[in-house]
Amino acid sequence: MTLKFPDNFLWGGATAANQCEGGWDQGGKGLSVVDVVPWGENRRPVMSGKMDYRSLPADSYYPGRVAIDMYGHMKEDVALMAEMGFKCYRFSMSWARIFPTGMEAVPNEAGLRFYEELIDELIRNHIEPVVTICHFDMPIYLVDTYGSWKSRTVIDAYLKYCQAIFERFKGKVHYWMTFNEINMLMHLPFMGAGIRIEAGENKEQVKYQAAHHELVASALATKLAHEIDPENKIGCMLAAGQFYPYTCDPDDVLQAMQKDRENYFFIDVQSRGEYPCYAKKYLERQGIKIEMEPGDLDILKTYTVDYVAFSYYASRLTSAKPVDGAETAGNVFKSLKNPYLKVSEWGWQIDPVGLRITMNAIYDRYQKPIFIVENGLGAKDTVQPDGTIEDDYRIEYLRAHIQEMKKAVCEDGVDLIGYTPWGWIDLVSASTGEMSKRYGFVYVDRDDAGNGTLARSRKKSFYWYKKVIESNGETL
Ligand code: BG6
Fold first, then answer.
1. Does 16 contact ligand 1 (Cβ within 6 A)?
2. pTM of the full predicted structure?
3. CB of 22 closer than 6 A to ligand 1?
4. Once rounded to an integer, what is the mean pLDDT over residues 218-240?
5. What is the CATH number of the domain that holds 135?
6. What is the domain count for the chain?
7. In terms of residue numbers, what domain contains 393?
8. What angle is formed at CA 393 by the lines to CA 71 and CA 383, rounded to 5 degrees?
9. Where are the alpha helices (DSSP H) in 378-459?
10. Whole-angstrom Cα distance, residue 424 to residue 438?
């Protein structure tokens, strides 16, 4: 029995354009969703689609506009990844950089060139690019003009964007994901999918209709990717984390199963090719009628994904009965407090074994290769007077998760493509807009209000992760 990660295991790190790239008005880029999501008390209302960004105060601060300016630090940042020995880098492209409004007939050459330079630099450094096509990021024009994914027009706009990048990066990029955390649409509709809920709209109806359009777009993108280059591998991507029942009361167990299904719904369609029976019944019960075009169901059935990617930060806990005062924060998803788990400074529970459980649950369900494309600890770092950053807490978190990941691969036989911890370099937090919620192996000198030099420096975890990669996960 082999107890090692496979030799071709993809160790790396992940980021997304909307949280690291900046350069919001550079190179002909159009305004995108993240550019209008502010820092502060209005962030949540805007992200959840309850507040229209056009009614924000004029002095609002938008942290994603400059972020950590990877746009201006690209070569330096690739050099840091190369120094750690990355085998792959998961990043997203900004749709509005390539099609500023989403409706142009031809792509913006400057936008394509930016990603071409990044991809070429990665390949020169033997780093496999792993691209998220849409990560909380789309041209705001599509939102304001068509209501985003409420409209089928956006499917065509998305496919035009996909075609442009599949053709341009043919032979250079092989791993793609159609949508980041597609289930986020249900929880933060504006951030997840550019959806604003207008007065009088049935929220659930709107969200499931939009989801249908995204699912069709994802299947058609999969078709296109395979036609353009049969070597392309397309993944779906889920904000994962198994739900546990609060007690062994069968009602709690049932509730946990149902909660999991709310999220699995999306990737059940993307991976198995059809609306699952439980979803059809749910929609029926809620009186939700999804408008479909003839052929939609065939498209979903025929063009399923090659692999299943997911983010994992924590497991979740749920009860069928109300449990007073026992709720805790988590990656947007509400969860009860699990007395067996510690929490991060932001209240996110820490559950390495939950990663093994989640990996097994997903692999059992789909029997397709899986890819952990996000995992990590958001924490405050202190820069010592000599400039060093001793982030042992981050090392401890990642070590424990990698140990469990190793068990899932080596003891349970899960087929895992790779591991890309989130925010390998500090970036803007998606949920809070803070810079002080840091995930990186690399520190970036920038604070929550946008002050700082943007200088990069290596944390203790940088050297630790380098050794992890060098030893293919043996030295933890
Ligand atoms: C995931 C997202 O939900 O969690 C990332 O895909 C996000 O974009 C990450 O940054 C961590 O969440 P947060 O809120 O701490 O940035």
1. yes
2. 0.97
3. no
4. 98
5. 3.20.20.80
6. 1
7. 10-470
8. 55
9. 392-410
10. 9
